[in-house]
Amino acid sequence: MALIKGQAAGGGALDGAGWVYIADAATQAAGTVTSKVWQDPPGNTILQSFTASSADLRISVRASYPSVDVDGTSATLSRDAGGGYYSGQVDITVAGSGNIIAKVFTGDGVEGDSDTTAVTLDLPPVITTLSFTGGYPGSQTELKAGDAFQLTGTTDKPIDLVEIQNYEALQFASIGAAGTVFTVAGTVADRGDAAVLRPGRVRVRDAATGAFSATRDTNLAGGSTDGVDVVVCSDLRPSVGFGAISYPGAQQALKGSETATVINAVNFYDTILYDSPPGQLLVTNPTVEESPKTVQRIAGGYNVSTNNLRVTANRVANDATTVSSVVVRIANTAVAITVSTPAARLRSGGNDGTSIQNHTITMQGNQQLLNAPSMDEGAAGTFIGSWSGGGATWTRTLQVHDNDPKGTFSWANLVATNLAGLVTTTITTGAQYVAEAFVARDLTFAAFLQTTTLNVAVVTYGQLRASIFTATNQPAQLNPVQGDTSNIVDTFTVLTIGTNPTTLFWNDAAAASSNSSGTAQIIAVEEIV
Predict the structure, then answer these.
(1) In the chain, where are the structural domains located?
(2) For 127-233, CATH number?
């Protein structure tokens, strides 16, 4: 085996004084130990020398007795699990580069063997000076969050990184640097609205070892010079709020050259400007805070959603600017109205055991309306209830009865008012509607008869449908020829078109003659859309 310092080749203590050696070294906390040189490679159990980035060291020791002294620090080692020696760690602080000496003491306290390891201290860099520099941005006397302010410092050895701490005046930042003099730009943090003198804090990184320095504050020596040791931080910004907007009369928008007044509140500012970026409004006294503020429409056809009144307020001390906008509604053009129905043809009901049919009529404007519109039905159908909805979309129920006339009809008497009071009386799209066809109903044939009454007008013969004849339990087929009364099994027709009532004819003579009870039916007769 390798010869251990202080130990005979056979493993016994020299002159009976025991043996001791330094087995390893580390730093107590942050730091690194590098460049280790061993007496006994490749075993690497006896440390000859090393380089450390901290003076606070943790020395690993092995000895033949438990009592040791390492560089003046006494310690008691623990017996190794194998029982052949004692081992442990001793924390020491060295004054600088040099030798570390470990001594062992025999059981009767006599100083025995010693071992020496050389340490070279390569300590982290030290920030020797640090201050704010370069002055406040522009004419500012305070700093707001996001502003930049320079820091200048020097170090005792070359560095490759400056780390600004998230502390007091500044946000965290990691910035590359080189040499022993650095100037970096820090970003101001938000520490509240009160104006407070605050320092900055920095640490740097050793270009050779990667070790970080201790932090240093710009006011380390207790300095209070504004712009050097400390800076004034205040994130107080102007506040801008909008309230109610008043339009002429009952209007809710402007037209022509009308004016509106806008409630607003602006605080913590030095300069103010009201303007209209789209150029739709002329603002009275644009550089004076007023509430309410008067604005006049000068352009724009229809605008209810895009902000067109802007307030820009600035606080000079920290050059903080707040911009806030609101929409003053404009409706300088009349609304265009589209009326739509739920189907191309509105079917009727109400006779032959059916219900009157309700259809939802939708009135859609290309603008919001000031209030509910009004419009009358044509000759077919009856409006019930009132127009409901809001904004640009309104609906109402039209009831269509079998007794109503069939055909194409025009809506009447439209009145739709936009937000600025402009009235529309013309329907742009959907001015007419079609009331035709009817819903399914069951019809009964009297005993031995081939006819029954259909109490609704048929408009389009080819759209007639039915389900079955109960007498034969067979599908009811529409006679290809309207009004044809020839004998055709399970077939039907109507004798007239466009009249109410009309006669439905059962072409199946044999089936009709068998209907002695008068209960035969044609099921689900309808004119589909």
Answers:
(1) 14-121, 127-233, 239-331, 337-430, 438-527
(2) 2.60.40
